[in-house]
User: What shape does this take?
Amino acid sequence: RSGSCLSDACTRSLTSTTMRVTVVGAAGGIGQPLSLLIKQNPLVSALSLYDVAPAAGVAADVSHVDTASSVVGYTGDAMGEALKGADVVVIPAGVPRKPGMTRDDLFAVNAGIIMGIARAIAANCPRAMVLVITNPVNSTVPIVAETLRAAGCFNPAKVVGVTTLDLMRSRAFIGERLGRDPRSISVDVVGGHSGTTIVPILSTLAALPESEHGALTEKIQNAGTVVVEAKAGKGSATLSMAAAAAHFVGRVLAGLSGEQGVRECAYVATSTVSGVDFFALPCTFGPRGVMEVHNVLTGLTTAEEQRVASARGILETQIKKGLDFAKSKL
Assistant: This one.
């Protein structure tokens, strides 16, 4: 039955202190270091690692980390088994970006992959928190949402795109510019997760001259391309993405476990911004997932308002692309 609970984890409270996490795409460039980092989180009781490539070796390796969580690897047709009982599903699956490729170029391959995963989630853990890393996030999150909606189990509080790397890069670059520890920098990044849809709200930083906002914004927006080109065809931003995703997973787990004041930016379903159904904004995470989406789009500079307007226009097209793809396959 569409939207029905098929696991004990679906009926028990997510305020328990430990949870089951499944990583789909665990043998890839992001998946391997991400699985290692998640294994170190004390809120995780069981870690399931799935990939179309053999994941047993990754699971065996990660299982030797001396934390209490169990680790099991799955491959081939065992995705459903890997997903059963999951409280949180993290998805770095798909092909990475290569030199000359845009995130739109990834769509033709990754759209089908993410839709297949969403169908498996609907069948095996329909109430799980779903964290999407697979690019292009601006389109893949709508695909997941529409697929779950068709199965009768879409919860907008439980499906989010991971944009944390944009914030991590912003803090790193701002900290370098100001000569401060990046971890002391507080900045929101809104919009989407590619190119000019990435809009850091730099006007909240009094120490950063407005005359420098444009160049720094472009540096943040182009950071992914810099890594792709530097790796010369041998990958994209995998290590920093894994670190960013592990941070985000940890914060979501903390919120699900009942910690108060968990605030992180994420790409979510929201009506906050007119004309688009998804937008990256700061969110408060709690026992039911996204508890509140915060509108931080007031008091912006003229340039920031223009960047947000531009991002909104681009997102409208990219969201529609994802939704149209999903609807054509359902």
